[in-house]
């Protein structure tokens, strides 16, 4: 009988421990892992000294970096998250130049950081180990280290590539699965509204293009609560 009582008490303690493993007001959650920026880009045609060159949209490739984001839980159902990461690096290329007697070229390499502040809603009960969430926020993207490629220098006489910084809205979905009181598995995605005006000097004059980058951003990693 005493053994049964001890087993019952142990099971109850485990249930209480499991219920306490989910998020509560005042918790901080730090997540680390991988983050992939996959541009869903759309752009105008290149404009050189005010003249549009048809079929000369630009493309921005994807990149994966290290994830670091921090969430503060205002309650068991509401959190505020800041996305950070190591700098992303992308190749910017343009097509359609063959019709103008020029080769299609990679214009250069750019780096950017997209810090994003998001309010998150966790709909599940605080006792649940599975914690999906959805959120809405604001993104600021800063571009830097814009380097013109040797290919663009040789083909276009290109120099001085620059991109304007961007403000936009951000959408967020994801989930955490609690492994124990502190650690969790994490997976999620953002959709970021990123638009920029780019310029590059060429032998024909200053070339300009408007680019809606609008990437999907995928996150995967581990979370730690304290």
Which helices and strands occur, and which strands form pairs?
Elements lengths: L1 H18 L8 E11 L3 E2 L3 E2 L2 E2 L5 E3 L2 E11 L4 E8 L2 E7 L10 E9 L2 E6 L8 E19 L1 H7 L2 E5 L2 E13 L4 E10 L2 E8 L2 E8 L3 E10 L1
Antiparallel strand pairs: 1-6, 1-17, 2-16, 3-4, 3-16, 5-8, 6-7, 7-10, 8-9, 9-11, 10-11, 11-13, 12-15, 13-14, 14-17, 15-16
Q: What share of the residues lie within helices?
A: 10-25%
The CATH topology assignment is Porin
Number of helices: 2
The topology string of helices and strands comes to HEEEEEEEEEEEHEEEEEE
How far is the N terminus from the C terminus? Answer: 39 Å
Largest beta sheet, briefly? 8 strands, antiparallel, barrel
Strand content: over 45%
What class, by secondary structure content? mainly beta
Strand order of the largest sheet: 1-6-7-10-11-13-14-17
Large-scale geometry? elongated
Radius of gyration: 24 Å
CATH C-level label: Mainly Beta
What is the overall pLDDT average? 87
Count of individual beta strands: 17
- In total, the number of domains comes to 1
The stretches of 5 or more residues where confidence is low (pLDDT under 50) are 1-20
